[in-house]
Amino acid sequence: MNVDETDTTTFADLALRPELLAALSSLGYEEPTPIQRAAIPPLLEGKDLLGQAATGTGKTAAFALPILQRLRGAAERGRGGPMALVLVPTRELAVQVSEAIHRYGRDLGARVLPIYGGQPITRQLRALERGVDVVVATPGRALDHIGRRTLSLGALEIMVLDEADEMLDMGFAEEIEAIFAETPDSRQTVLFSATLPQRIDRIARRHLRDPIRIQIDGKSSAAGETPLVRQSAYVVQRAHKAAALGRILDVESPAAAIVFCRTRDEVDQLTETLNGRGYRAEALHGGMSQEQRDRVIARVRGGTADLLVATDVAARGLDIDQLTHVVNYDVPSSPDSYVHRIGRVGRAGREGAAITLAEPREHRMLKTIERVTKRPISIETLPTVADLRARRLELTSAALRESLLEGDLDGFRVVVESLADEFDVVEVALAAVKLAYEAGGVPADDEEIPQVAQRPEPEASGSREQRARPEQTGAPRRGRAPSGGMTRLFVGVGREAGIRPQDLVGAIAGETRLSGREIGAIEIAQRFSLVEVPDSAADEVIAALRDSTVKGRRATVRRERDASRPTRK
Ligand code: AMP
Question: In what order do the strands lie in the sheet with 307-310?
Fold first, then answer.
């Protein structure tokens, strides 16, 4: 079934236990996302589920909340194996998902353990020995523990495959099968995947019992209503989002804009940050009284505030004529939510712009929105410090021109004339321009924001699988030219360090916005490896790998051609 976007079910309607409702409210979640509304009820009933959903849809909470709902009281929980196992493709996702489950299960004392390669196994062993409720693991490391008998799945009630297509792309199919073989038949099984190729369907047929199917990628009921606005997006790392937003606002200089965030907390924080940077921003969310909300809207209508930072719930039905821009500070949780948001501008033939900030892993959600709305979203590069300066100079120049046309400047003539005795008139004009420029506010941030490389479109599925399948051949052929459009990278760890193709894919997919399927041939030698990545992403991958570890090892990473003479190790 496609998710129903007109549904207004609340978290309380989903009959979640009070500890979970309290955690969600303290996180500032105002309502379930469409995937949560569709997935949580059948999961609470114990049904198996096959869900098509990408990062950004709220899929983690969609499976985490039903897991936590089942958690027994502390007294009944022993030192046995976990009641739930979540398999994820990368260690970053393992950490992220376990943190999310930990946050939601805070009041239940849920014991959640991420296990992944690269982390000392002893720490994981100690935690497993003490007893855990939920394990979030990469398939390779989960299987390691099963082999050592340190992870027992005999008491498993729920098994989740998260980002299943990524796990298959990374060559984990056998590990997943071997793990399934260790679980009781009575288990509930949940599979989430951004795409549903045949290989996923095969796994579903083998391991899921009469599953409920839900997809976020279906037809959009609102797609036909997409207003004709200019649509663009920027891919930005989370840490740089606030600075990126400031810069975009400076260049766009909207008359009035609404900035959408996911949670109440984010609305409050962002409003504070924007006000600190000199914007006139007002918060609008479900935690405010109607009177407070009315006051805020009046300020925007009256022109004393020009940025409204809001959650979807609070902005529902809002109609403000002055709005020229809709900014999605986070990608919306479904295409319909996107369409509803951008419907705030471009009404009655007026001009409008919709700008979306997406984190690298959320890139796929943009593609889904494009497909469903049938409107292109152009991916832009962030304005640089130089762009910003050029734009500010343009604004200063326009202001001066206006002033010149307006005339009525005689009162200032005495200043120019007296300075002209001492200085050249052009010099005097330059100093005046400088003052006018600075009066417009000097940008708070004058550091460049790292650009995230544009990622190429994945190829048709056949060749994609071919390319992504990790090759574990003999000695790498270092003289061979990389495939078209690909750059070959040298990574200074190899078989000797226990590196497998999936470790490299995991490290790259986890640290950059490339997905497993975009990584090309991988060759592993005794003491080094060669990995092909799209040309456009090479710098990003090099920087990311240099800053992190592969299977716990720091490695030299460079373009292969940078190695002047390959030394056989
Ligand atoms: P996911 O698609 O699971 O990676 O979630 C994307 C983001 O949405 C995460 O930052 C979550 O914390 C957030 N999120 C999930 N559910 C909700 C919700 N119902 N309301 C607001 N934010 C949410």
Answer: 281-284, 307-310, 257-260, 325-328, 353-358, 230-235, 378-379
- One domain, residues 539 and 417: no
Q: Are residues 332 and 401 in the same domain?
A: no
Which CATH number belongs to the domain containing residue 321 in this structure? Answer: 3.40.50.300
> How many domains are there within the chain?
4
CA distances from 565 to 505, 526, 532, 561 (A): 26, 18, 19, 9
User: Which regions in the chain score pLDDT beneath 70?
Assistant: 1-6, 75, 78, 217-227, 348-349, 440-446, 453-481, 483, 561-569
Are residues 278 and 323 part of one domain? yes
- Ligand 1 centroid to residue 96 C-alpha, Å: 12
CA 530, distance to chain mean position in Å, is 28
pLDDT at 89: 93
In a domain, 457, yes or no: no
Residue 55 CA: nearest ligand 1 atom is 2
Query: Which residues span the domain enclosing 169?
Result: 12-216
For residues 126 and 41, state if they share a domain: yes
Indicate if 471 and 408 belong to the same structural domain: no
Q: Is the CB of 59 under 6 A from ligand 1?
A: yes
Q: Taking the CB of residue 362, how many other CB atoms lie within 10 A of it?
A: 19
pLDDT at 101: 98
Query: Can you spell out the DSSP letters for 119-182?
Result: S-HHHHHHHHHH--SEEEE-HHHHHHHHHTTSS--TT--EEEESSHHHHHHTT-HHHHHHHHTT
| 453 found inside a domain | no
Dist CA 537 CA 533 (whole Å): 7
Count of Cβ atoms closer than 10 Å to residue 191 Cβ = 26
Q: What is the DSSP string of 193-241?
A: ESS--HHHHHHHHHH-SS-EEEESSS--TTGGG----EEEEEE--GGGH
What's the pLDDT score for residue 561? 64
- pLDDT reported for residue 471: 37
pTM, full prediction: 0.77
pLDDT in tens, 132-159: 999 999 999 999 999 999 999 999 999 9
Last residue of a domain, one of 216, 248, 276: 216
Are 404 and 472 within one domain? no
Cα 359 to middle of ligand 1, angstroms = 13
Q: Whose CA is nearest to atom 8 of ligand 1?
A: 58
Atom of ligand 1 nearest to the CA of 53: 2
pLDDT score recorded for residue 442? 58
